[in-house]
Amino acid sequence: YSGACRREELLNIHMTDIAHTDNNILIRITKTKNNIQRQFAISNPRWVKLVQEYINLRPQQITHERLFINYRNGYCTVQPIGINTIGQVPRTIATFLNLPNPESFTGHCFRRSSASHLANQGGDLITVKQHGGWKSSAVAEGYIEQSQKKKLVVAEMLSNSQPSTSTLQGPPLQKTMISNTTTEIDHLAGISVHAAENSVVTIKVYNNCTITLFI
């Protein structure tokens, strides 16, 4: 979760990819889908402790460097776990927590949840992109656009917006008095109006369309 890892990336983490610095753990991801290597840190004290406890359970006679190995009856075996077992971990967790539809939790949950939570915490495009190791910005942009943080920012912008007071500016209106009447007619560019009291008003528009009004 901390590294937004794919199943294959978790599968290929080796003991030589792990480094301890002060109270943190740094992990290198060297084998990726798009050949972009990256590194992530685990800083939460509880998580650091759990990782260290898991490492301490490794049998001394183990002959490979794979980090994740089988765990049965309170003991770790020498056999590394396969990609399908890694993919089933989210479903196992969801079942343990009594979450609805646990079968919908796939091996991609770790990666998707990590990127989503980072975006929700305000991670920008470059941070999210580098965290997940994406070559294209499109995927990272999707996580940001769909994040709750982004939606709240947009909502706040809209709630603080003020009604527009701008008006459209046009040519000044020319007012003409029709003789022997008290009717005031406004002449607009491109429109000719001929009117008198109790008469017909004819409006001619540029496209030769004529509108006749009976007053």
From TrEMBL:
CDD domains: DNA_BRE_C. Pfam families: Phage_integrase. InterPro entries: DNA_brk_join_enz, Integrase-like_cat_sf, Integrase_catalytic, Tyrosine_recombinase_XerCD. SUPFAM superfamilies: DNA breaking-rejoining enzymes. This is Tyr recombinase domain-containing protein. One of its GO terms (molecular function) is DNA binding. Residues 1-156 form the Tyr recombinase domain. Keywords: DNA recombination, DNA-binding. The lineage of its organism: Eukaryota, Metazoa, Ecdysozoa, Arthropoda, Hexapoda. GO terms for biological process: DNA integration; DNA recombination. The keyword DNA-binding applies.
